[in-house]
Design goal:
Elements lengths: L1 H13 L7 H10 L5 H29 L5 H54 L4 H11 L3 H15 L5 H11 L3 H15 L4 H55 L8 H30 L1
Amino acid sequence: MLEAYGYKFYRTFLERYEDKLRSFIDLCIKAKIKMHYKAYIGLTFSIPFFTLAASLVILVILHIVLLKAPLFISILLGIILSLVVSLSFLMFMIAYPLYKVSERRRIIEKSLLYTVSYMAVLAAGGASLEHMLERVAEVEPEKEIRSEFQGIVKSIKVLGYDLPTALSIAAQRTASPVFARLLIGLRETALTSGDLRSYLNYVTSTMIREKESKLESLVETLSFLSEVYVAAMVAAPVIFILLFVLMSMIGGAVFGLDPVVLTVAIILIYMPSASLVMLLLYDSVLSRS
């Protein structure tokens, strides 16, 4: 029902502005959201209006009934808060495809080396490009990559596109620039020399070198974070706790605060917070790799 409404809203109000929405349309296609891009864009730009109206009515009633606020103040606060709610919903709907594209790109590029290596083996055995694509679409364990190859096979067998056109369309719609370059390279190689074995061997060796470079960079980053962890989580708390203990023995204060209070703050606030920050840093670095 929502999808039908979003599609109708798009056809009625937004279709005339399709050229201006081209970037967002391409983003939705690459994100592979589980509804047609026209329906999603229609919902993106229509639901915030309904959210604005509904939240305005609810908030005004709540201010008047529960908070006993004057009518003018209730309406003013209701407008401000409903605008915040509506804009938040709009930003979420716009940000979601960005997140999906980023996540799909990360997953594809993480496992693409193994897929290309498998295709190089098939090419060495004399398999045609179409057979390679069909085989990868059947046996590829990574869902996102398998979905990309299944889309190419579907374009050829169901929609009737020729192989070069299907590869070009897939390259335009994929979330990964690396995968797009691979598809364009396969297309150009098939149209020119036809030596898929040499091309895939070259791509494999290039991706291995890039993988090695990324792993070296990852090791250096983790080494730096380890040094930061030792300084921030081991050395700094010990030094400050000893300093505050000595100050509490001889008397004195730091910015008017009791050293005992500062010691407790380091143990109960600083160390858990710093540990959480370090955990998030490690997770962000490892997830990108």
